[in-house]
Design a protein that fits this description.
This is NDMA-dependent methanol dehydrogenase. InterPro entries: ADH_Fe/GldA, ADH_Fe_C, ADH_Fe_CS, Alcohol_dehydrogenase_Fe. Keywords: NAD, Oxidoreductase. Residues 198-392 form the Fe-containing alcohol dehydrogenase-like C-terminal domain. The protein is α/β, with parallel strands linked by helices and 405 residues long. It has 2 domains: 21-190, Rossmann fold; 195-404, Dehydroquinate synthase-like, alpha domain, CATH 1.20.1090. The protein has 16 helices and 9 strands. The strands form 2 sheets. A 6-stranded parallel sheet has the order 1-9-6-4-2-3, sandwiched between helices. Helix 9 packs across helix 14. The protein is globular, with a radius of gyration of 21 Å. Bound molecules: fe (ii) ion (FE2). Fe (ii) ion is lined by residues 204, 208, 273, 287.
């Protein structure tokens, strides 16, 4: 008797554990105690600064109250850059820190993970760590990740996405050794987000959940987390966008982004994220905005590969699919995603971000080679990616492109 274990592309699945997390209103007040448990005596806070919110001053006070020294690197920008990682690492060495506390959204957490990689590898360029499992040495520096946006999931994940400013692309570093040591998810810190940022980050979380739910790498546990995150976002995102002080909605979004992060930690993502990485690196466009624009055309492309999954997504988004065929239900999921996006004010397209027809051959190669493409449920070609790009562009531009062709 013989059997072929290679009958599927991913015969083995892996569930990745996530770090412990404190979740709830006022959780940030435990930052000092949690940092002490990690052995941190002198913390480097890695952040964008969160100017105008008072959050960094507040957390600095909480840390100093328990005797922890604090040095602040506040130079992180959206789509965090390789040189920001090395600037933060230089400060870490100069101040003789022994741990990192990242405060902010995914950019701050990802930059902090990258600083830990550089420190563990004796100052080696972060540009040498793109891809899966590229760390050669153990990461010993602890990282406490305090999340102030409801989108990233980076406080739970083993991923760090850093822009290589020489080659102009986003490195996606997936390595279990860089996972954070502890997370704090506090809806109180998320109330300072303006509506636009609430919308973008919320759509990032939704993309994490949708891509994890349909991913070829998904496991039963990640699918359960993903579908629950979709339900929470459907219940909370509109209200959090419309009223920053809606406590119930903020709390749902806090849980949703964390849950979606846990889901993609094991399931991976898909080409919506590959596209967002590409445009984020080349145009410095907000990650959540790029996801929100790409997710509907990508869902329409992927739907035929796993219509039952998209039908589940429709139901999680409140669609009554009674009497529909599976394909009709799947199509209704695509419509529900599109409706939600528009209801929270995301009506832009990639043309308005600067994408033009002549970019597509090169950009489609970048998307094809992104590490997230491996999780996409439907086989991808560069031609298909170009067509998805066109659907994300202004129709007028598409017509012009066809005339030129
Ligand atoms: Fe994302």
């Amino acid at each position: 008797m013989s059997f072929n274990v290679n009958h599927t592309e991913f015969p083995l699945k892996m569930y990745h554990p996530t770090p412990g997390a404190l979740i709830g209103w006022g959780a940030y007040r435990m930052a000092g105690e949690e940092a002490k448990k990690l052995g941190i005596k002198h913390a480097l806070i890695v952040t964008s600064g969160l100017r105008g919110t008072g959050i960094i001053d507040e957390i600095t006070g909480v840390l100093k109250h328990v005797g922890i020294e604090v040095t602040v690197y506040d130079g992180v920008t959206s789509n965090p850059k390789d040189h920001e990682v090395h600037a933060a690492h230089k400060l870490y060495k100069q101040a003789q820190c022994d741990g990192i506390i990242s405060v902010g959204g995914g950019s701050s957490h990802d930059c902090a993970k990258a600083v830990r990689i550089v420190e563990a590898h004796d100052g080696q360029s972060i540009r040498e760590f793109n891809g899966m499992n590229t760390c050669q040495k153990p990461i010993l520096i602890p990282q406490l990740a305090i999340t102030t946006t409801a989108g990233t999931g980076s406080e739970t994940s083993w991923a760090s996405v850093i822009t290589d400013t020489e080659k102009l692309y986003k490195m996606v570093i997936f390595d279990p050794t860089i996972i954070t040591s502890r997370a704090i998810v506090d809806p109180a810190l998320m109330r300072t987000m303006p509506p636009k940022l609430t919308a973008w980050t919320g759509m990032d979380a939704l993309t994490h959940a949708v891509e994890a739910y349909v991913s070829r790498l998904g496991v039963i546990t990640s699918q359960g987390l993903a579908i629950h995150a979709i339900k929470l976002i459907n219940e909370g995102l509109r209200q959090a966008y419309a009223n920053p002080d809606n406590a119930e909605a903020r709390e749902k979004q806090a849980w949703a982004q964390y849950t979606a992060g846990m889901a993609f930690n094991s399931a991976g993502l898909g080409i919506t994220h590959s596209i967002a990485h590409c445009l984020g690196a080349l145009f410095d466009s907000p990650h959540g905005q790029c996801n929100a624009i790409a997710m509907v055309p990508v869902a329409r492309y992927n739907m035929v590969a796993c219509p039952e999954r998209y039908a589940d997504i429709a139901r999680a988004m409140g669609v009554d699919t009674t009497g529909m065929t599976v394909m009709q239900a799947a199509e209704s999921a695509v419509e529900a995603l599109d409706t939600l996006r528009k209801e929270i004010g995301i009506t832009e397209n990639f043309s308005s971000l600067g994408l033009q027809e002549h970019h597509l051959p090169r950009f489609s190669e970048v998307v094809f080679n992104d590490v997230c493409t491996g999780g996409n449920p439907r086989i991808v070609t560069t031609d298909a990616i170009q067509q998805i790009f066109r659907e994300c562009m202004d129709p007028a531009v598409e017509v012009e492109a066809e005339v030129l062709a």
